[in-house]
């Protein structure tokens, strides 16, 4: 992976960090950086097998490092399920002595509208609501470990758009797309077929 590297050599021994979506992309690289610096890193992943593969990869890559790396622990967390978020937070609050860093990294962008287990539009439910509930449920643990930090991954893409507060569930937007599609179908059946083609 290219891009910038964090030059800091600050050690994170005795620190505990949660990274959501730690099995891939930015989350995996973030977990690596924290692990290399000595942190106890909890890999919060929706698929335990993908999490275990990431853990094995990081342990292989960082093996024999000096000073020694911290530790990696795979924990199941599906941000598309508020029940899963509650169960995860309950386990952290029960089992972890401290929590110094919560990195809200997991995220997705979907080509079509789907819903989470709780009936929220999935992008909104996973990227925002799941992380919001998770942060609220872990706040006391974070405060008790002060100075602690919550880091929220975002995107520069927000500069190109705005929040439709009257349509957080994307239902009006979907109706608009369907209406435009129906109009196109009436005007040009051939073009509509091309638009709906998976190719
Ligand atoms: N990459 C960029 O250029 C870029 C730009 C702007 C913003 N961002 C933001 O940076 C963050 C990371 O992006 P990335 O490019 O590293 O993404 P990525 O490679 O697609 O990884 C996303 C991670 O989120 C996890 N995830 C998705 N749905 C989840 C759920 N319901 N519960 C728990 N975990 C879930 C994925 O797990 P699975 O592997 O199981 O699917 C994966 O580990 C995101 O919030 C993204 O919006 C990225």
TrEMBL record:
Presence of keyword Oxidoreductase: yes
Pfam families noted in UniProt: adh_short (PF00106)
Gene Ontology molecular function terms on file: oxidoreductase activity
Keywords: Oxidoreductase
Keyword Oxidoreductase applies: yes
Parts forming coiled coils: none
Name of this protein: Retinol dehydrogenase 12
Organism annotation: Amphibalanus amphitrite (Striped barnacle)
């Amino acid at each position: 992976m290219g891009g910038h590297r964090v030059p800091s050599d600050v050690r994170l021994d005795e620190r505990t960090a949660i990274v959501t979506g730690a099995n891939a992309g930015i989350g995996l690289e973030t977990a690596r950086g924290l692990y290399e610096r000595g942190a106890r890193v909890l890999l919060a992943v929706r698929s335990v097998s993908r999490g275990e593969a990431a853990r094995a990869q990081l342990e292989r890559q960082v093996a024999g490092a000096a000073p020694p790396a911290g530790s990696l622990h795979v924990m199941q967390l599906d941000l598309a399920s508020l029940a899963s978020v509650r169960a995860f937070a309950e386990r952290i609050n029960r089992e972890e002595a401290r929590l110094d860093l919560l990195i809200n990294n997991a995220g997705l962008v979907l080509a079509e509208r789907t819903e989470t287990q709780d009936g929220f539009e999935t992008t909104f439910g996973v990227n925002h609501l799941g992380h919001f509930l998770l942060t609220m449920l872990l706040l006391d643990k974070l405060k008790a470990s002060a100075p602690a930090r919550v880091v929220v991954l975002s995107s520069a893409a927000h500069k190109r758009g705005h929040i439709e507060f009257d349509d957080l569930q994307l239902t009006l937007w979907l109706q608009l797309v369907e209406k435009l599609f129906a109009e196109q179908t009436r005007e040009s059946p051939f073009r509509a077929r091309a638009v709906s083609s998976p190719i």
